[in-house]
Structures are given as structure tokens and as C-alpha cells.
Request: fold
Amino acid sequence: MNLVASFKIFYQYKYLIYVLVLRDIKTKYRRSVLGVLWSMLNPLLMMIITAMVFSTLFRFDIENYVLYLLVGQVVFTFFSESTNFAMGSILDNGALIRKVYVPKYLFPLARVLSSCMNLLFTFPAVFIMMIYTGQAPTWRIVSLVVPLALMLVFCLGVGLFLAAVAVYFRDMFHLYSVVLTALNYATPIFYPEKIVPPEYAFLLQWNPLYYFMQGFREVLYRGGLPDPHTTMLCAGLAGGALLVGLATFRRAQNHFILAL
Reply:
């Protein structure tokens, strides 16, 4: 299945995708009093706690550390949540897959899109913090769509790969939690990249999240436009992840029913 065919199927089943995304969002906030407001409150509360700890214990020399930390947390949370949800999408929808024919890649796609909606719900909190810290958004904020779109494609590619592998290798859920923990510390979310020793610089150079983090911070933290070099790197990473994810998923999907 090539990309053109995938987009045609995407359009054909757009209503089903809408229903799946809406279902995932409703499931996440079911019986929650504040509902989607938690998408704004959660990153703010985590930011306050983390900022108090690290600004007191380590005293990182970062201008507007609160906003630096919040942007990093929001980006990493989106990657972690979207790929984790996508990984279990085929297993969670096994009953539906057995009964009717539905293009199976729609399930991880819906999970990633629902996580993207949750990310959009957090942006008001980011904008409030930008204004509070004296860095009000300018017209350049519209360029945020570039790193956001690339990050979405990258998460979809990773999610497709994980969803296919998890059907046959259930230990992937435990293994991936370890990978996310490692990425959390290997990505400059709460610390400045300049404190990384030269012998460990490869942890940043070979970490795809580092480049996506830079793309978001260039717009939200520094108030600029996406850097062309970083944008090209992110585009390559997103395209490569999508191709690998689609190829892996396509190869495995015909045998999903036997493994579910």
C-alpha cells in the first residue's frame, strides 16, 4: 500500500476515524469532573513541581526556565502518549477487527490523532505561561504548525511499527516503557543541552526527539521561526519513520487475526 492509496482510504473512512478519535477522548476523560481541563492543568502542575525541584537543587542557568521546561514536557508527553496508545490499538480493537473489514492502520492513526487533540488542549496553558513570563505570542506562532505536523507524522510512523510488533511480541509494552524512561533523560527536557559532556554528545545527536524539541522551542520558547536545518532533519526523520512503520505494519497486518 503506497502513500497515495493510504490517503485515499483515509478520506474514505474519515467518519470512522472521527468516531474513533472521539471515542478515545471520551474514554480518557470519562467520569472526570474537569474533563479536558486536565489537559491544561496537568502540564502546569507538573511544570510547577519540576521547576521548584530543579531550580532549587540544580539551579540551571536557563533564561525563563519555567517556559523552557513546560514546552519540553508538553512535547515529550505527546510523543509518549501517542506512541503508547497506538501500540495497543490493534489488541484493544481485536473484537472489531475479527467481525468486520476495516483498514487496520486506522486504529493506530486514530490513537495518534486523539493524542494530538490532547496536545492542542494543552496549548492554552502554554500561551498563558508565555504571557505570564513576559513572552507574549507574536505572529510567528502560526509557524508552529510546521513542527507540529512533522511530529505528528513521526509519532504515527513509530506508532504503526509498535502496533504491529506488539501483536506478536507482548513484551514490547514493558520494553517500550524502559525506552521511554531512557528517552526522558536523554532528551534535554528539564536540563540545558550545554551541560552534556562531549563524550555523551551522541545521546543528543542520535536522539530524534531532540530535534523535534528544538523545533517546538524555536517557536514557543525563543519566539522565532522554525530553523530550516532542524526542519529538514525533522522532515527526514518523520518521513523515514512513516515509511518504516507502514512497511512493517503492511507486512504483519494480514496475520493479525491469527495472533489476536
Notes: The chain has a mean pLDDT of 85. Residues 3-259 form one domain. The chain has 13 helices and no strands. The two ends are 22 Å apart (CA to CA).
